[in-house]
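Why predict the complex rather than its parts? Because the way molecules touch one another can change local conformation, and only a joint prediction can capture that. The input here totals 776 residues.
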Amino acid sequence: MPLLVVIPLAGAFLVPVFGLLDVEWACHTLGVVVMAASLLLASHLLGNTGVNVTWVGGYAGEIDPESLTGVAMVSDGLSRLMLLIINGIGLTAVLYSISYMQRYTQVELYYSPLLFMVAGMNAIVLSGDLFNIYVFLEVAAIASYALVGFGVQSEELEASFKYLVLSAIASGFILLGVAMVYKETGTLNLAQIAGVVREAGLSRTLWLALGFFMGGFGLKAAMVPFHAWLPDAHPSAPAPISAMLSGVLIKASGVYVLARLAFNVFAAQAATGALLMGMGAVSMLVGVLLAVQQWDFKRLLAYHSISQMGYVVLALGVGLSALAGGRQTIGHIAVFAGLFHMLNHAVFKSLLFLCSGSAVYATGYRDLKRTRGVGRQMPFTGFCTRIACLSISGVPPFNGFFSKLLITIVTVWAGHWVLGGITVIVSFLTLLSFNKVQDYMLEGEPAGEHSHISESPLPMLTAMGILAFMCFATGLLVPLYRETVLGPASEILVDGINYSSIIMGG
Amino acid sequence: MHAYMPYVLAIALFAVGLYAVAVKKNLIKIIIGVIIMHHATNLFLVLVGYRAPEAGEAMAPVAPSAAQGAGVEFAARSVDPLPQAMVLTSIVIGVSLVALMVVMALRLHEKYGTFDLEDIRDLRG
Amino acid sequence: MRGMTLIVKTTISFLIGFITLFGAYIVLTGHLAPGGGFAGGVILAAGLLLVVLAFGADAVRERLGHRLAVVWESVGAIGFLGVAVLGFAAGTFFAHFMPRATGFRLLSGGSIPFSNLAIAVKVAAGLFGAFLMLAAFREAGRREE
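Output of the joint prediction:
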């Protein structure tokens, strides 16, 4: 299990050496090999059921069996789901980068932070220790700052700086929260903190820490009102990085930790549920309203990321408040819906960003008005774009339809009529904005300057094709993997505070 | 209240840093604000680990010579070393963050010729 | 970047030995006293910086250049990962694979001194590389004037 962190780290450390030797193809191959190895490991871990705990250094109960001083790496259902997402999308992004990054120099400076980011995210979802989460959160975040400012155009630097400062503030809040939790509970182990909360309830300090965590991780997950960095940062990065950022980072570092803290550590409280629902609903609305008026394709996609993350957080919030109220079935389904939508969003949002990158690769423009009719010249890209647009709008039989439907159903069933109505409205507006995308990019006559462009190179097409296939598969084949992947993930969250007893007992 | 004064100081420092980041327009001042915030958080973390001694002075977690009593009593009496280890890691993270920010600011200065945030406003909407 | 006066050069070439010794001391006693890999690495990096500042970047570019920083940084990092993976040999990940002698002696502390060493190498090389890059900025800026 720790190999999942070590292998990308080793890759990240080796890449600059290859770069020094000026062997560019070695960097590419190293990237692909490392990501493939991670994905293999992640799928191998799927075979385990239940919760597996590894104590780093074998420190469990050495000095004093009661205190359990040691850093734990925990792999449970939710971690395995996140690992699949991280490494799977990572592999497609790396495949795509093989040809996309030909336009940029200094490729080793790209692969190294990318592998650092993947290693960091793998460690975040595998860690059972609060400070470990913070450290690897920073690792992944710093790597992403470097990647956002990669091509040094002026607007990319400005975006990267804004993202940097805002994210640093969030990290400061998170660290303050960690300090407060440590003061109250005397431990950093997630399971032990949960144990303290289970016995003594939440004191005022813990509430304050929870508030800080909501703010800090809400910023990482791009919730309104902390969303301001996303529309600048995500479009400015190179396309595969945008895919990784939007498809994976805001999930692994934002939503995952929020869910873990809200469900497992701080015991499902009605207040956190209400807060999550509120943030989710507002994010959905604000994201899609601001997205409809965008002409820049990648900026539009970034705003939609905010909106879709709002969906996920809303579903998790509904589940949380249902669990706090004691309604287990609704809670279970809501959590399942939220995680399902997270998986789907990773797939189709990454596909969308990769398609936009394909358009940029061919034409050099991101503006929808300038890339008219690109879909006619590049049929495969156009096909994938259409699939992705239909998925995110929630059209059957693609994956977006199932998860959005489930979220709407469970929201209404839990009694939140207004929120259910909001989900439907937002879905409609999403359809509207992606109609615009399809109109401009795929239909229409290509302008004269675009008459010479042809289809993108094969690695890019392969990556896009894989994701397009996944859009179908994750939707239609849900019964197949529901038991192995999504079920255990939602059960772990629903189990809530009982999770700690599994860790301490084992 | 008297016992909480150090914590109040750390939070006040954090607020100062937050003010600098939110209000100031100069890039360098924003960077300094982030640094102050980070230092305030580290200070808070160190303060959390203090264990007031029953008798005598507070004992720092420095390993004395082997003669001077080791083992469980040392672990129980000395100031808690775990926050200090956390702060060490946090300082490292802060250093790399600041290095990255400074490089970004330098490059921004190259492109725009100014450090003023008002002028660096290409992205909108 | 030009170097400094003869007085500075002589002083630095005398002091660099002590600075390196001090840094090594901080690194090696990291498990006994405050310090450890990061702090010792910073001191070593500061020593290297002093050499570059005193003698001028042009004079030392061959031996203390960018290439050195990158290579040693990777070496340090791989060394740290190696210590971690070698822990597998003693059981779980990152376990101590050196015997733990009586407490509070120099050779106690399991595999921590090794990781301290690797970290020190990486930090020194990394900070030095970062400084070189910042210095290159300033040089580029000065050439434009």
